[in-house]
Write a structure and sequence with these properties.
Number of helices: 0
Strand content: over 45%
Low-confidence stretches: none
Distance between the termini: 49 Å
Strand order of the largest sheet: 1-2-7-6
Protein name: SHSP domain-containing protein
Structural class: mainly beta
Mean pLDDT: 89
Helix content: under 10%
Number of domains: 1
Order of helices and strands: EEEEEEE
Shape: elongated
Family: Belongs to the small heat shock protein (HSP20) family.
Length: 94
């Protein structure tokens, strides 16, 4: 039997990038094969964003990253959208 959460790596074409501008941080992650309801965003220690995605489909995988932002990041006002492949997260700067 397979474990409840597979320790399979994320799909090889998954990636994540962070861009900055004077008013916000923009996080863009390519998460092919993941469903919206299997993606979790959580703020940690006021400046770390924890991104987790799991796919329980055959050949699925696990994607997990922790992104540290500057002290000016307002993680209480995070906005996110997912189109089935690209996750876009906006973190306003104070």
């Amino acid at each position: 039997h397979e474990p409840f959460l597979s320790d399979a790596p994320p799909p090889p074409d998954s990636w994540i990038a962070v861009e900055t501008s004077p008013g916000e941080y923009r996080l863009i992650a390519r998460l092919p094969g993941f469903r919206r309801d299997a993606i979790t965003l959580a703020a940690r220690r006021r400046r770390v964003l924890h991104v987790v995605a799991d796919s329980w489909e055959p050949g699925g995988g696990h994607f997990e990253r922790r992104i540290s932002f500057g002290y000016d990041a307002d993680l209480s006002q995070v906005r996110a959208e997912f189109n089935g492949e690209i996750l876009r997260v906006i973190v306003p700067r104070r």
